[in-house]
Amino acid sequence: MALRPLNSLTAWCKPIEQAPNKGIAEQAKCRAIKFDDADGFVESLVANYSADCRVDYFEITGNDLIMIEMKDMELKIQHLSNNGVLKKDIEKKVLSNLENKFTDSLKIIQNEINSSLIPVINYLVVANNTNVIMLDKYLPKNPRKKPFVVCKTDEICNKLSTLGTRLCP
Fold first, then answer.
1. Which of these, 108, 118, 139, 140, could form a disulfide with 145 (CB 3.0-4.6 Å)?
2. Is the Cβ–Cβ distance between 74 and 168 less than 8 Å?
3. Neighbouring residues of 126: CB distance < 8 A, sequence distance ≥ 6
4. Residue 6 predicted with pLDDT over 80
5. What is the pLDDT of residue 46?
6. CB atoms closer than 10 angstroms to residue 22
7. Angle CA 18–23–26, to nearest 5
8. Which residues, at least 6 apart from 42, have a Cβ–Cβ distance to it below 8 Å?
């Protein structure tokens, strides 16, 4: 296991942002370690993690790990619905995908950075204009069945700031 010093991870600090949502990209006013994509930490790894699902960002405070997944939930749900997937199956597919992202990301981060990191909170960050009623309809009602807390792009910085010293100022 290759333990990396925390200060070396700041090279991957990037603004937290949604991919273009209906033509408009949303950017939060804070940064975290970009994990996925060509400009993210996982691209730098020697090991082959290409088959794993990965969150978009993560943050470390002490031994606490915070993972962040940015997702256009309306577009995802609409796509599944348009392809004839039933409501109960949409919930299962969306939840399964998110669970895999958080689980696989934790495995990679613990293997490559620090095996003693403990996931304290996972955020599913949705676009600011996401229809909350639609989220209530397709995401599990029971918070114990959700491995994440839902918030909007313009809320994530405030939520992260309440969790202690930030690696990516």
1. 140
2. no
3. 71, 72, 73, 135, 150, 151, 152, 153
4. no
5. 58
6. 9
7. 30
8. 35, 36, 49, 54, 108
Structure confidence by residue, pLDDT tens digits, 123-166: 999 988 888 888 888 877 765 667 789 999 999 999 988 887 56
Under DSSP, the state recorded for 24 is: B
What tokens were used for 30? 């804070």
- Specify the higher pLDDT residue, 5 or 55: 55
Closest CA to 139 of 85, 91, 68, 86: 91
How far from 141 is each of 66, 146, 148, 153, CA to CA, in Å?
Answer: 22, 8, 12, 21
Residue 20 makes CB contacts below 8 A (sequence gap 6+) with none
For residue range 113-133, list pLDDT tens digits in order.
999 999 999 999 998 888 888
State both tokens at 57.
């960002």
pLDDT given at position 153: 92
Structure tokens at 19: 């991919």
Residue with tokens 């949409």: 90
The number of residues in the chain equals 169
Q: 3-state DSSP call for residue 15?
A: strand
At 159, give phi and psi (nearest 5°): -65, -45
